Amino acid sequence: MITPLYALPLTALFIALSARVINYRKAQRISLGDGDDPELRGRVRAHGNCAEFAPMGLVLLLMAELAQAPAPALHFAGAALLTGRVLHAWAIGWRGPFAARVAGMVLTFLSLAAAALAAVLA
Fold this sequence. Notes:
This is MAPEG family protein. The chain has helices at residues 3-28, 38-66, 71-93, 98-121. The protein is an all-alpha fold. The protein starts with a helix and ends with a helix.
């Protein structure tokens, strides 16, 4: 199985992003919302964006794998998803360069499209 090779690091990324939000909330004593704190807002959006895109990418990757898409196509889609999510999280959650945010979304969308096509065409 190929999908778990990408699910594991994406899960680790999601947990790390979650922990960053939790720890900051605790340190700043902000229970709900963002407390009008730009740092917390960035951390929350990095976490939320991962939660919005990673599951769909993994579902599509698994569908392509179950449809017996070629392994190189699966690895391409999985690597693009993982790289895209890491770049986007860095750009949003750690205030990396805007180009990393754009590249992260391009890679994520490319991964989603590639996995969906691989699932249908396999």
